[in-house]
């Protein structure tokens, strides 16, 4: 069984300078309750790994606009102008990673692999400083594993062993992130007893989950922001 | 509709015609998204959304939006019957693994080797590549949808791209408001021109040499 904590308790271990993965895509699938608790706690100088930085006032985007992030790994920052401003001013160090590579680097870490070979980025700025290998006459980039101390995952349903169901388009990079972080906090709309979930509906096996927090902020339609 | 919009619809319709029955297609943000509205009714084409599903449908009715279902631009969408959801690992395995038949996306520049620049302008626009690099490398066929010239009237089809590349030698077809051009080993082949232009005009607005076959169709 995994501990069921308040959001405040769950983010207690996150310190200034910690590394954190936040699942979600354009805010869809962000763990809003955990993000708010972290903002309230005030941790700064974070290394953040997230698919995109959403919008300045939405979910993970707030960590950027409220200046909590020192180093960012993301695939797209275009919808949050604050990210671009902080990158250009040098306040935040930004590494932009192709989305497929972003996920595979994280998955590699969680799956115990030494890296992945991908054709994505060959001949572009992405290949800079990376080793290239030719396999069966085709050129690949060696992309290294990416892990973090913490990850925030958002589930619709979670049982007390941490087995999670993530519906529809909220899965995105959350599955890989849950595998690749040392301490994984799941924010769930509903927490159920073992046996209440159909085992075939488990998106993330509970083995990856460290703590469970009940969601206080429902998913929102975000595009208006 | 204003003339510019009409020209845009014409090129979008031409691209929709190009997609065969049964294809799995990924449409980029912006103009390429419009292709979905012009797919011939008798063709069964499924759309892939890189954030994690196949079977991208239209915009939901107002008030019926589901915050758990958004497209790659973050806008609420629907799933068509027969669609399915998956995580990013699966989504990009589908892309890089060559299981997407066509991707349609915009461009800042394309060159005669099929190189594409569409994700950044150093010092001006640095939004990140999102899934574009994976899509262009992985999709079996890459179609570029764009205006033939930029807003200063300069060609966007070049001998060599000047902006940072999204991918190398991956573009197969370029469709613009003026022309349908295929990228081949011997260079760019002008296969069709728009009904309100001439071959001479297209040649004038294109930097590299165009191979011009005996018959050129109009669209």
Q: Remind me, CATH topology of chain A?
A: Glutaconate Coenzyme A-transferase
Total domains of chain B: 1
Largest interface: A-B, 52 and 43 residues
CATH homology superfamily name of chain B: Glutaconate Coenzyme A-transferase
Distance between the termini of chain A: 38 Å
Uncertain segments of chain B are none
Which structural class best describes the helix and strand composition of chain B? alpha/beta
CA-based gyration radius of chain B: 17 Å
The gross shape of chain B turns out to be globular
CATH arch. level architecture of chain A: 3-Layer(aba) Sandwich
* Relevant CATH superfamily of chain A: Glutaconate Coenzyme A-transferase
Average pLDDT of chain A works out at 96
> How does the major sheet of chain B shape up?
11 strands, mixed
Give the overall average pLDDT of chain B: 95
Q: Any idea of the CATH topology of chain B? A: Glutaconate Coenzyme A-transferase
Number of helices of chain B: 4
């Amino acid at each position: 069984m995994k501990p069921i904590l308040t959001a405040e308790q769950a983010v207690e271990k996150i310190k200034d300078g910690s590394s954190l993965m936040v699942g979600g895509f354009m805010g869809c699938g962000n763990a809003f309750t955990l993000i708010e608790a972290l903002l309230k706690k005030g941790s700064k100088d974070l290394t953040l790994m997230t698919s995109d930085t959403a919008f300045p006032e939405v979910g993970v985007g707030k960590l950027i606009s409220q200046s909590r992030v020192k180093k960012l790994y993301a695939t797209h920052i275009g919808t949050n102008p604050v990210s671009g401003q902080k990158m250009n001013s040098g306040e935040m160090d930004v590494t932009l990673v192709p989305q497929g590579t972003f996920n595979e680097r994280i998955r590699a870490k969680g799956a115990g692999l030494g890296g992945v070979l991908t054709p994505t980025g060959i001949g572009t700025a992405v290949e800079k400083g990376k080793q290239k290998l030719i396999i069966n006459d085709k050129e690949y980039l060696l992309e290294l594993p990416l892990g973090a101390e913490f990850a925030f995952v958002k589930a619709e349903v979670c049982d007390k062993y941490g087995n999670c169901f993530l519906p529809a388009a909220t899965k995105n990079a959350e599955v890989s992130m849950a595998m690749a972080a040392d301490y994984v906090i799941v924010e769930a709309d509903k927490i159920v007893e073992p046996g209440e979930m159909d085992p075939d509906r488990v998106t993330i096996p509970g083995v990856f989950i460290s703590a469970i927090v009940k969601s206080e902020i429902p998913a929102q339609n975000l595009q208006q922001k | 509709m204003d003339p510019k919009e009409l020209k845009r619809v014409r090129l979008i319709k031409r691209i929709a015609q190009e997609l065969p029955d049964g294809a799995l297609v990924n449409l980029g943000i912006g103009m390429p998204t419009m292709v979905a509205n012009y797919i011939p009714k008798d063709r069964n084409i499924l759309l892939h959304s890189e954030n994690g599903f196949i079977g991208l449908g239209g915009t939901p009715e107002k008030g019926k939006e589901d915050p758990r279902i958004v497209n790659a631009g973050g806008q609420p969408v629907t799933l068509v019957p027969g669609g399915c959801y998956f995580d990013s690992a699966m989504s990009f395995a589908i892309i890089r693994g060559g299981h997407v038949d066509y991707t349609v996306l915009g461009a800042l520049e394309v060159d005669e080797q099929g190189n594409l620049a569409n994700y950044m302008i150093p010092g001006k626009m640095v939004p990140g590549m999102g899934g574009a690099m994976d899509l262009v490398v992985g999709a079996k066929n890459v179609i570029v949808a764009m205006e033939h010239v930029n807003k200063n009237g300069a060609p966007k089809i070049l001998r060599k791209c000047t902006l940072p590349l999204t991918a190398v030698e991956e573009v197969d077809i370029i469709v613009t408001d003026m022309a349908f051009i295929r990228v081949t080993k011997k260079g760019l082949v002008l296969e069709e021109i728009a009904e309100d232009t001439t071959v001479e005009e297209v040649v004038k607005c294109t930097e590299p040499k165009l191979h011009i076959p005996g018959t050129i169709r109009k669209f």
